[in-house]
Specification:
The protein is an alpha+beta fold. It has six helices and eleven strands. It has helices spanning 2-20, 45-48, 105-113, 145-155, 185-197, 201-213, and strands at 24-28, 32-37, 40-41, 52-55, 58-72, 75-80, 84-90, 93-99, 117-121, 129-133, 169-170. The chain starts with a helix and ends with a helix.
Length: 215
């Protein structure tokens, strides 16, 4: 009886292994939020958990942003980096995307001037990549990043791609079970509150003016 069980399990293990290593897994810290992956907006990423993304083999392009709390004179502030567009090529591998820790506002400003990003495979080897910042103008929480990335690709920057790969699959850490699940009213309110608190005073006033006109 034991031999029969082993014979049944081994093919399943082999099949599972083929699935695991048939693509590229991009892992990052929770502070690194993927916004656009291979031309598609992730949306509601603060719920879905975009720090574990399955990508197709070949060339991939990811727009992400670092967002974390930093200190300025013992005061805690939210720092959102200028959006970063990264392009790299890999096959059947696990890749980790990290950056040097940012603890103060001065370090955050230095990061925006010269972002220090690290991309390594499971063997600890550096993975070659191209990196470029998107312009950081206007209301940051209401930008059409998918359109911006598409326009960037048309212009042909160093991190541009001529044809994006197929859509990635997210290893979601959310309470949602399937991709058809919709954000709850509570989740939407959380998103709006987080977005509003990250605005500058001028942006808050502009947003409130817009809101009153569209009630």
């Amino acid at each position: 009886m034991k031999k029969k069980i082993i014979c049944c399990v081994l093919p399943l293990v082999s099949l599972f292994s083929n699935i695991v290593y048939a693509d590229v897994t991009l892992q990052s810290t929770k502070e690194m939020n993927a916004i656009v992956v291979n031309g598609k907006t992730e949306g509601w990423s603060f719920i879905q958990g975009t720090n574990n993304i399955i990508l197709p083999n070949g060339v991939n392009q990811v727009l992400f942003q670092v967002g974390q709390i930093v200190l300025e004179d013992a005061t805690r502030k939210k720092f959102n980096s200028i959006p970063l567009l990264i392009k790299f090529e890999s096959k059947d591998s696990n890749i980790t995307l990290t950056y040097e820790k940012i603890r103060t506002l001065d370090q955050a400003k230095a990061f925006d001037k010269s972002p220090d990003i690290i991309l390594k495979n499971s063997n600890g080897e550096n993975v070659p990549f191209e990196l470029e910042q998107l312009d950081n103008n206007g209301l940051q929480n209401f930008r059409d990043y998918e359109r911006e990335v598409a326009e960037y690709n048309k212009l042909g920057g160093i991190a541009a791609v001529t044809q994006v790969s197929s859509e990635p699959q997210l290893q979601s850490k959310a309470v949602f079970i399937n991709s058809d699940a919709k954000p709850s009213p509570e989740a939407k309110m959380m998103f709006l509150k987080n977005a509003f608190t990250s605005l500058s005073l001028e942006e808050k006033q502009e947003f409130m003016s817009w809101g009153l006109k569209n009630l």
